[in-house]
Amino acid sequence: MPELNKDILFLIFEELHEDSKSLFSCLTVNRLWCENVIPILWRNPWNYIINYDDKISLYYIVMFYLPNDIKELLARQPPESISFDYLSFCKSIDVDILNIIISRGSSSSYNQFILQREIYGLIIRKCPELKYLNIRSIEHQVFYFPEAKSRLESLCELKCDTSIDSSYFYGLASICQNIHRIIITNEGVSVNHGIVKLIEVQKNLKYFEWEDNFGYEEYIGDPYDEIFLALTKNASSLNHLILLFQFIEGCEYQFLQETLPKLYKLKTLIITNVFIFINEYKLIYHELEVFNVDYISLSAASSIIENSRGNLREISLRYYNNYDYEVNFNEDSLVYIRKIYENCPLIEYLSLTFSSENFIEFDKLLKACQNLKSLLLLFIHNSDREETGNELLKILIRSAPTSLREIRFFNDFQFSLKNLEEFFEKWKGRPALSIQTAYLRDDYMELIDKYKSIGVVEDFKCVPMLDIYF
Question: Which InterPro entries does the entry mention (predicted)?
Fold first, then answer.
């Protein structure tokens, strides 16, 4: 086999940039491979799954660059030489991981503070451009370092939390105005005006993620309104919105009513723990691909699906807490299923709530949606459970696309042993099926084990209903 040249090797390794295990194994092949892999691994070396309690390689490399007087603070001395100028390849700062590494150097809080300052400054000097910055536990304002402006202008992704002083974000806002991804952890404090300003000045924000992380006793103000109003200034570029809220008693989430209709370019919409009232405003997302909302009426969901222009690939809606509030559930469910098979030819992942009155429409959906890979089914029982379960199996055998790999039965679907065996027999020749259910009879297991042994069933789990959803 002829030896691959350096350029080809680099292109191959680029394809593996998210597969750290394979990249680490490539390091040991020969010097040429190692020289090509190191720059890829060291773009964001903090991102790989490494047990920092057991492995100190990153510690030694980072500490090698420190001046001798700072090295005197270290409990573990770094080597006298290293094989590559590793930090020259680095394009990221992850304060969380760096603090773990620094803690190995000294147990003294004062020494750790000094090491943090030195190492942040070191990376700012050594890295030609920074693309990724995680400042969740930062204690130094990195934008004050002399080279900060030229290094941070290229920043693409920022992770932070709302407990950080606003002045940090004012400093970043003066430099970083082309961030593509912002990921914020909300610690329950009142609005952080620095984060508001940082969002406002962005010119090409594509991804915004917000996650609440506080107890009810820690919630002291409303951190939402101003931040989400600032988000609308990025409406022409924002494609991905992920909002992982906690329930807050008395909070009506008025900011969502003002924000969501303006974000017309969304491709991803994920919202937890908030009920969206479509009657008060209309959401139209022509480019929507991922639609994952915990609490929304079927009629509201149908409206969004109808306007999606065929781009939806995932619909994951948590109906189990609110279907009782649907005044016309059977009718709304019928319309919802119909809107999916009429408007979602590319759908791959789907959660569905329906009853036996919707079996005809469900059959049509399976025939129309030939890219389906995963189904989560919540059935509203209004007749004999085993009878309806058996009918469901017949429809799946008759109409399910060959792409289907996973079925999750959210509530207690029941099947006769005869019908379940017939289902598995007729599934032969298709890709192996993964099944999750919240209901299991003892006499199912022998049958399931039989079909696992011959490759009809890939995996079978009986788990609590909430685990099935998540």
Answer: LRR_dom_sf
Give Cβ neighbours of residue 294 (< 8 Å, ≥ 6 apart): 271, 272, 273, 274, 275, 317, 318, 321
In the numeric block, the tokens 């996973």 are attached to 406
Angle between helix 298-306 and helix 329-343 axes, rounded to 10 deg: 20
The DSSP 8-state label assigned to residue 356 in this structure reads G
Q: Angle at which helices 417-427 and 442-453 pack, to 10 degrees?
A: 10
Mean pLDDT of the chain: 85
Strands (E) located in 373-413: 374-379, 406-409
Most distant CA pair in the chain: distance in Å? Answer: 79
CB atoms within 10 A of CB 163: 15
Question: By the 8 A CB rule, do 155 and 124 touch?
Answer: no
Q: What are phi and psi of 87, to 5 degrees?
A: -65, -20
pLDDT digits (tens, 9 = 90+) for 24-51: 888 888 888 888 888 888 888 887 766 5
Q: What are the pLDDT digits (tens) for 348-375?
A: 999 988 877 889 999 999 999 999 999 9
- The residues, any chain, with a CB within 8 Å of residue 373's CB and separated by 6 or more, are 348, 349, 403, 404, 405, 406
Residue whose C-alpha is closest to residue 374's, from 335, 411, 400, 340: 400
Q: Which residue has the tokens 């007749």?
A: 383
Cβ burial, residue 155 (10 Å; 0-12/13-18/19+): buried
405: Cβ contacts below 8 Å, ≥ 6 apart: 373, 374, 431, 432, 433, 434, 458
Q: What is the pLDDT of residues 423-460, one digit of tens each?
A: 999 999 999 999 888 767 777 888 889 999 999 999 98
The predicted-structure confidence for 53-80, as pLDDT tens digits, reads as follows 555 788 888 899 989 989 888 888 888 8
310 dihedral zone (left: phi>0; alpha: psi -120 to 50; beta): left
Residue whose token pair is 């890295």: 127
Say if residue 277 is exposed, middle or buried (CB neighbours under 10 Å; 0-12, 13-18, 19+): middle
* Sign for the pseudo-dihedral over CA of 184, 185, 191, 195: negative
Burial class (CB in 10 A: 0-12, 13-18, 19+), 272: middle
* Domain boundary assignment for the chain: 1-41, 43-147, 377-384+404-464
Can you give the pTM of this predicted structure?
A: 0.88
DSSP 201: T
